[in-house]
Design brief:
Elements (H helix, E strand, L loop, with lengths): L5 H30 L6 H12 L17 H30 L1 H15 L5 E4 L3 H12 L4 E5 L2 H11 L4 E4 L5 H6 L7 E4 L4 H14 L4 E5 L5 H8 L3 E3 L1 H14 L1 H12 L5 E7 L22 E6 L5 E3 L12 E7 H14 L2
Helix pairs in contact: 1-2, 1-3, 8-9, 10-11
């Protein structure tokens, strides 16, 4: 179930109060105009209504007001009804400023509008310790993402620290409605990084039901959960305990290689990454050799090619033919990777 945001209740009450206040002002001005049988202009009727509701008065009345039957009883009703409505509006507006952070609420509404327009983004379910590192990497490689988490304070803190690129939805990631708010039907992939295996299992089941095409990667706390997560629809399962153990061993027996990878990942000035790019069916590059494909001119270094049958060719030579459906495994900076993907996309038109 999605956790309610208390500020939304204040916002809804403010809208209701504004609606009733508008109704009273327009209704009062209209009735005054009708009672006066056209002797007062619409502006004078609105003016009289507003100064009556605000209890300002100014000692002014409409010309001939006392001579119109029913005008004064109408004004008495307007004073009683309108003053209460005005006070209700003012109290809710004050509550919104004090409790609801009006500027923050408007920012969140604009953010949800941006999320509604997204396509091909990545959903990150869970903004704990693991989710923090996931988001840092997505920011480093300039990928669009939306975070789903139930901790409002945590999300707002990250939003202040990371800026407008940090998009989020407050709620329970296991709830269909929350994932739909995050655009799960339009996303490229989902990362389930919650603390409990059962919660990640629910995320996988829900996401797979809502988007059959999405790539789903799930975190597994216990080794026994991996099979269940895969059967539920996860494309890949990652165990932080397993990776942590491998890292400890690597630090012991191959420290220089580990240091190189760490520097590559943590160097904010040079976003060098190992990444992939595919050659789709119908591409003009299909069947061409690696040397003749123009891939190397983009600045990306091809270190391996995954062929359609699942075999890998490491350190491929320039005369290797690239069939449709193959994937290039490259080392490249973000700018060079963008050039490579634009090059492959242009060849597919």
């Amino acid at each position: 179930m999605r956790l309610p945001d208390p500020r939304q209740g204040v916002y809804q009450r403010l809208l209701s109060a504004l609606f009733f206040l508008t109704l009273v002002v327009v209704g009062g001005a209209t009735i005054l105009h009708q009672v006066g049988a056209g002797r007062w202009s619409w502006f004078d009727c609105f003016y009289m209504t507003v100064i009556t509701l605000s209890t300002v008065g100014f000692g002014e009345t409409l010309d001939g007001f006392a001579d119109v039957p029913g005008a004064r009883p109408l004004l008495l009703v307007l004073i009683v009804l309108g003053s209460g409505t005005l006070l209700y509006f003012i109290s809710n507006f004050t509550a919104l400023l004090v409790e609801g952070d009006l500027g923050g609420l408007l920012l969140r509404r604009r953010m949800h509008t941006r999320i509604d327009r997204l396509e091909g983004h990545i959903l990150v379910c869970g903004m704990g310790t693991t989710g923090h590192h996931i988001v840092e990497e997505l920011l480093a490689v300039e990928r669009t993402f939306v975070v789903v988490d139930s901790d409002a304070d945590r999300l707002e803190q990250y939003a202040r620290d990371l800026g407008p690129r940090f998009l989020y939805v407050l709620g329970d990631a296991t709830d269909d409605a929350v994932l739909q708010l995050a655009g799960v039907e339009r996303c490229q992939g989902v990362i389930a990084a919650l603390h409990e295996d059962k919660d990640n299992l629910f995320v996988v089941i829900t996401a797979r039901a809502l988007n059959a095409r999405a790539r789903i990667v799930a975190k597994s706390v216990k080794a026994t959960a991996e099979g269940k997560l895969r059967r539920a629809g996860a494309n890949a399962v990652v165990s932080p305990n397993f990776i942590g153990g491998m890292r400890l061993v690597s630090e012991m027996i191959r420290p220089t290689a580990v240091e190189f990878l760490d520097r590559m990942l943590r160097d904010h000035n040079h976003s060098l990454r190992v990444d992939e790019a595919g050659i789709p069916e119908g591409s003009a590059l299909a069947g061409k050799t690696l040397a003749g494909s123009g891939v190397r001119e983009t600045g990306a270094l091809v270190i391996a090619v995954r062929l359609p049958d699942g075999r890998y060719v490491y350190k491929p030579s320039g005369d290797l033919a690239l069939p449709a459906g193959s994937f290039l495994i490259v080392i490249a900076q973000s700018a060079d990777l963008d050039k490579l993907r634009r090059h492959l996309a242009a060849a597919s038109r």
